[in-house]
What we know:
Oligomer: single chain
Amino acid sequence: MTNISKRLSSLCLGSTILLLSLSGCEGQNARQAANQQQPPSLPVMNVMRSSVSVNQEYAALIEGVTTVEIRPQVEGVLKEIAVDEGAYVNKGDLLFTIDDRIYRQELQTAVAAKKSAEAALAIASLDVEKLKPLVRNKVVSEVQLQEARAHLRAAKAALDQAAAKEQIARINLEYSSITAPVNGYIGAIAFRTGSLVSRNQSDKLTTLSDVHQVRAYFSMSEVDFVRFRQRYPGASIEEPLSAVPPVRLLLADGTTFGNEGRLDAINGQFDRTTASVTLRATFPNPDGLLRSGNTGKVVIGYTYDDIILVPQSATSDLQDRIFVSKVNEGNVVARTPVTVIGRSGNDYIVSGGLEDGDMIILSGFSRLPDGTVISPLQKAGEESALPEEELKINEKEGV
Length: 399
């Protein structure tokens, strides 16, 4: 009898525990269902139209306004190097001297040949003058006078040829002294005294750069160039360039060059390999701080009016279009395309697709389908008021 009582007690106790367990599961499922129906709380912001100034930087290579390769025009031994590398020279200053003895001899030979041609011309002229009265008096025939006149013409041609050879000899002699064609700085000198040089050699003697002005060459991508032309339209290339405000130059150490420059040229074609176009900005360089071969960054400033700044992290890309998750009336989410015309730091500059006061989601929108109702958190980073258990459930669902 006692054993039966114990069995009945155990059976009742097990039934009670089973009922309590079932009741607890039902309560948990109910709470989870309630949590799933709770709108997700996501950070949002209201966008406002404003103005912004943006600096766009482009890597640039700097060249002097005039860069001349100094090459020999005659063959010979390099007799003298009159300048040092890096020296500043004025137009007409002596740079190099080539042994000119052979060219002096050629000039003397040419001068002598010219004098001989002058004498032959004088004799031919006398022959013509001598035959004229004899022909009039019919002492000699007309044919002899014609022959004399032909010899005279030949003598004149020979004199012209001799004069040309003399001029060539003088030019070659002048080429033996190489002078500066412009003001500027001397580059590296690849030869030394005693080197044999010629007009057909591949290596230049040196480079001379006129850097009282410098030109910064930089490339602009196709997308940036389209936006540039939209910002500065014009019927010709000169019109948009004249409308661009002065540009600045960042040097290699990050400092700003003291003189502003202006855009003054755009390449007529895009590079097919890089899909970019080359532009040129010219800067005054009176102190000679910049040299050919320097590098830097051209800084172009743009001012955008009546635009909206949208954090890049609040956007998504799809098929070359940019979207934001806009919160409409009733806190309903709708993915909306926007028109991006530039960047400012970590923000997109938006000109279309949003209006003043529109609300967008800042994060957590990647898996939200259109039509989802959310609970907006007005400030990014604001902690959710949802209980910890509900937040865990939202995280598991990707909210």
